[in-house]
From TrEMBL:
Protein's UniProt name: Alkyl hydroperoxide reductase/ Thiol specific antioxidant/ Mal allergen
Secretion signal, residue range per the UniProt entry: 1-20
Keywords: Signal
Keyword Signal assigned: yes
TM region positions: none
The species this protein was found in: Isosphaera pallida (strain ATCC 43644 / DSM 9630 / IS1B)
Superkingdom as given in the UniProt entry: Bacteria
GO molecular function, one term: oxidoreductase activity
Domain named Thioredoxin: residues: 29-188
Pfam families xref list: Redoxin (PF08534)
InterPro entries assigned: PRX-like1, Redoxin, Thioredoxin-like_sf, Thioredoxin_domain
Length: 208
């Protein structure tokens, strides 16, 4: 556990420049705008079946889009919390969608669809998880790091962008549950109290 904490500390230090100084931490997405569409992203289901991810095929009232990467220790630290949060909304009109768009040399083998299938099985992911080697979805949403979350309401407007909570290293220290609160607000047709936060994690390297 100590080694993971040290790794997280190192990662958070190394990726600090990825956060930038853009207004509301994102230079691509504006809260309230129509969510960029995406389709045909190769993916796997929790039961290991091949599928694809398309926004138009999501029929739930709320879609939670999360950018992930198997190689990222911050994602590893958050995995249990993400899975537990998705499970807490079981039976409600909420769909979690995970996507990785890592294409950096030395990381692809850990993050491609074959590796994702293994991770889903090993960890017990309870939502669809795909791989976009074109990186188009990451660019469209202005995703900077992994994990990074976007909440889309029933009108498919972006109502939240940022972190899951305020404690990347230790879930016991979390006091603000940004993502959970945003999902509940979207379900109830309410305005999200904190619509943007700074996502903390491993920087996504875009090829172009």
């Amino acid at each position: 556990m100590r080694s993971l904490a040290l790794s997280l500390t190192a990662v958070l230090f190394l990726v600090a420049p990825a956060f930038g100084a853009d207004v509301k931490y994102n230079n691509q997405i504006t809260i309230g705008q129509k969510a960029p569409g995406f389709s045909g992203i190769p993916a796997t289901t929790p039961t290991g079946e091949d599928t694809s991810i398309s926004l138009d095929e999501c029929k739930e009232d709320v879609v939670v889009l999360v950018f992930l990467a198997n190689h990222c220790p911050v994602v590893v630290a958050y995995e249990d919390r993400i899975i537990e949060l998705a499970d807490s909304f079981k039976g409600k009109s909420v769909k979690f969608v995970g996507v990785c768009c890592t294409t950096a040399p030395g990381q692809v083998e850990q993050d491609n669809l074959a590796a994702i299938k293994e991770r889903v099985k090993e960890k017990g992911y309870n939502f669809v998880y795909g791989y976009d080697e074109t990186q188009a979805i990451g660019k469209a949403y202005g995703a900077r790091v992994t994990p990074e979350f976007f909440v889309l309401d029933k009108n498919r407007n972006v109502v939240y962008a940022g972190a899951l909570d305020d404690s990347p290293q230790n879930p016991a220290n979390a006091k603000k549950f940004y993502l959970k609160d945003a999902i509940n607000a979207a379900l109830n047709g309410e305005t999200v109290a904190t619509p943007t936060t700074r996502a903390v994690g491993c920087g996504i390297r875009y090829q172009n």
